[in-house]
Write a structure and sequence with these properties.
With 450 residues, the chain is mainly alpha-helical. It folds into 3 domains: 18-173, no CATH class; 187-296, Cytochrome Bc1 Complex, Chain D, domain 2 (Orthogonal Bundle), CATH 1.10.760; 310-449, Cytochrome c-like domain (Cytochrome Bc1 Complex, Chain D, domain 2), CATH 1.10.760.10. The protein is built from 19 helices and 6 strands. The protein has helices at residues 2-25, 41-53, 56-59, 99-108, 123-126, 131-142, 165-173, 187-199, 203-206, 246-255, 267-275, 280-292, 308-311, 336-344, 346-349, 366-369, 374-382, 404-419, 427-449, and strands at 73-76, 79-82, 224-226, 229-231, 257-258, 262-263. The strands form 3 sheets. Strands 1-2 form a two-stranded antiparallel sheet. Strands 3-4 form a two-stranded antiparallel ribbon. A two-stranded antiparallel ribbon has the order 5-6. A hairpin with a 2-residue loop joins β3 (224-226) and β4 (229-231). α8 (187-199) packs across α12 and α14 crosses α18. The longest helix has 24 residues, at 2-25.
Amino acid sequence: MKFRFVFFSLASAAIAGSLVAIFYAWQPSIAPIVSEGPFDSALVRKGAQLALLGDCVTCHTADGGAAYAGGLAMPTPFGTIYSTNITPDPDTGIGHWSEQAFVRALRAGVDREGRHLYPAFPYDHFTLVSNEDARALYAFFMSRDPVKAAARPNELPFPINIRLVLAGWKLLFLRQDRFVPDPARDAKWNRGKYLVDGLGHCGACHSPRNLMGAEEKSRGFAGGEAEGWHAYALGASSHAAVPWDEASLAEYLANGFHAMHGVAKGPMANVLDNLAQVDRADVDSMAHYLASLADRRSEAPVEVAPNARAAAPSGPGKMPQAAGAQAATPAVAGDAGAAIYAAACASCHESARPLPLGGAALSRSSALTGESPTNLVNVVMQGLPAADGTARPIMPGFADVLSDSQLIDLVHFVRERFSGKQDWTDVATAIRAARSTREFARRSTANNAR
């Protein structure tokens, strides 16, 4: 009798808990609209700027596809998620969405029909967006040309493919907070924090994530992973050889390049392409706030040589410096990485030529001094294409020239020679991941071309 009582008590509690969970997870649909608008032109222009600050076009545009029509394949540790169509097409986009439905999706991650959205859409940051900015974004997207483009089904395993599961994730990790200015800080700092933490969702890439894919807020800006690239730690956690200051951050965010820090690649390149088109005052505010994160820096600034030529060692057993603009550095006997560097890298990186024909100073590169080999591996494999109108570094890719073992030797060599830091232990893993990412991108491009 006692066993039966305990059994039925536990069963009743489980059923009640399940009902509460289902009640919490269930979200009502919002009635479709026929149309809204026309919208005030000033509001639409404001929304266009905000969309650039949020990098919206990058994620919601497939390679070769129409802007904002979705279809971009986004690899995650849990599977592949395809971005959705956010043009005002009534059948495949958001043409039937009211402003209420749009704002709910933006802040709560629930679409018009009541389905939970995956946090690849960073609504855990967009919850900070103000009512006025949300309204401007809605006006902008509803003013785009409608494009008929049905969303591709996500490729996710069970039970992640069941959207109700996301309600539990939100219960644990989603906080419905609005941005509150800090009265102890000036307007520029507060504007920068609002953009960085909210619409810019910088922490979504630059912070680590836990096993459930949630951003670790307690370790904000300590470095993270994004689409096969490492997003470097910022502020007090930065491993940059030359500490970032407000001026260098502003130049980098506005132009995608800074001589003391390098050129943006991977997802960050798209972010900065968009920031180059926004009001410079907003970019300066973001730089102002990000620079303040380094106020907690306790370690002394790293001493670095002004360029790679000065940083290179000399003496017995060391590699002598290149003498001329085209001179290659002789390799150290028996060192495979040194031989590859001498043949493929030294003539640019140890020349006296200015950018873009001369190589960047490796002693300053975060790709070598950073906490992960991922970005160095990616740059060596993919290269740096020429950029129109700017004196940014250019570099050929070596993915099809160097074998995995040769890449390993080269990466270990340049890390030891130029960074002055402990060698990485996961270079082989980074190379395998980079080749896998290249193959994923190739397949995605081929699928979009069909």
